[in-house]
């Protein structure tokens, strides 16, 4: 990132005057409101181009697939933050989003970069390139991004469905093929299967659809924001934020030093 004075201080996303709001070259009120879905608008905002019906369907499927994931750490953080400060839903949503990193949600971007490297090796060399990269990660003891799931050990049903949607839309291509090639290479190198998970399927289908690699991390973040709002609405009528906090206290045992005569509180 360049620090200092920029020679080209411009943006091409939006502008306005008293009569019109322009977004990516379109009249917001005349061309977009009531005419495009939020998914299609998101594609336009990120890429600068209107999504085709097929592209919109694939992106929408990815957003639906990753939105809700139960009481994962990001959701717990949001609900506990809301319990402590119910006057600021935005703060609770932000707390949940800040909990999205390389383990939760961010893995889609890492998987996308992995698949892009395989594709860079050429369409005729997917198997060879995948095998080489898998062996390199294995030698470094680095996790395979987009592969493996603690619950869905035989198949992540979301991954299969996303690839099916992309295939039906006519957009499944080299990145989906790379994902399957890597899955095969991992099985051969590891001596056991490690299935493609939803965080690997999302970049596979989106990159084939023409979505930019640099925007991949934003897809699960946008999707999860919707789920966080749902959890916070539920928190208002069925509060569990403080219960989650109490559960943490009862689950963790203190093993540090104590003054003479100290007796721990019985749970």
Question: Descriptors for this entry?
Answer:
267 residues; 12 helices; 3 strands; three-stranded antiparallel β-sheet; globular; 57% helix; mainly alpha
Descriptive account of the structure:
By secondary structure, the protein is mostly helical. It is built from twelve helices and three strands. Strands 1-2-3 form a three-stranded antiparallel beta sheet. Helix 3 (53-67) packs antiparallel against helix 8 (157-168), helix 3 packs antiparallel against helix 10 and helix 6 (107-120) packs across helix 9 (174-190). The chain is globular. The termini are far apart.
Distance between the termini: 52 Å
Uncertain segments are none
The value of Rg in angstroms is 22 Å
Oligomer: single chain
Shape: globular
Please, what is the average pLDDT?
Answer: 93
Strand content bin:
under 5%
Strand order of the largest sheet: 1-2-3
Task: Tell me briefly what this model is.
The chain is mostly helical and about 270 residues long. Helices cover about 55% and strands about 5% of the residues.
Task: Reconstruct the topology from this structure.
Layout: E1 14-16, E2 21-23, E3 26-27, H1 28-32, H2 38-47, H3 53-67, H4 73-84, H5 89-98, H6 107-120, H7 126-139, H8 157-168, H9 174-190, H10 198-209, H11 218-237, H12 241-251
Antiparallel strand pairs: 1-2, 2-3
């Amino acid at each position: 990132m360049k620090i200092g004075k920029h020679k080209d201080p411009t943006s091409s996303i939006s502008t306005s005057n008293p009569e019109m709001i322009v977004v990516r070259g379109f009249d917001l009120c005349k061309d977009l409101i009531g005419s495009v879905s939020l998914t299609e608008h998101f594609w336009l905002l990120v890429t600068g181009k209107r999504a085709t019906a097929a592209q919109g369907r694939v992106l929408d499927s990815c957003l639906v697939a990753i939105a809700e994931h139960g009481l994962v750490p990001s959701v717990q953080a949001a609900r506990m933050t809301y319990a402590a400060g119910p006057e600021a839903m935005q703060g609770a949503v932000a707390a949940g989003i800040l909990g999205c990193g390389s383990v939760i949600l961010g893995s889609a971007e890492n998987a996308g970069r992995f698949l892009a490297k395989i594709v860079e090796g050429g369409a005729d060399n997917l198997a060879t390139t995948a095998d080489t990269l898998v062996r390199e990660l294995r030698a470094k003891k680095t996790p395979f991004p987009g592969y493996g799931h603690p619950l869905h050990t035989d198949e992540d049903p979301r991954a299969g469905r996303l690839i099916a949607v992309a295939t039906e839309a006519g957009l499944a291509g080299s990145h989906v093929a790379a994902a399957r090639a890597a899955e095969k290479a991992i099985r051969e190198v590891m001596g056991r299967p490690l299935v493609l998970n939803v965080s690997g399927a999302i970049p596979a289908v989106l990159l084939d659809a023409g979505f930019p690699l640099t925007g991949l991390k934003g897809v699960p973040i946008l999707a999860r924001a919707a789920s966080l709002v749902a959890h916070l609405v539920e928190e208002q009528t069925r509060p569990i934020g403080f219960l989650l906090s109490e559960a943490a206290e009862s689950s963790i045992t203190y093993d540090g030093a104590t003054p003479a005569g100290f007796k721990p509180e019985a749970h």
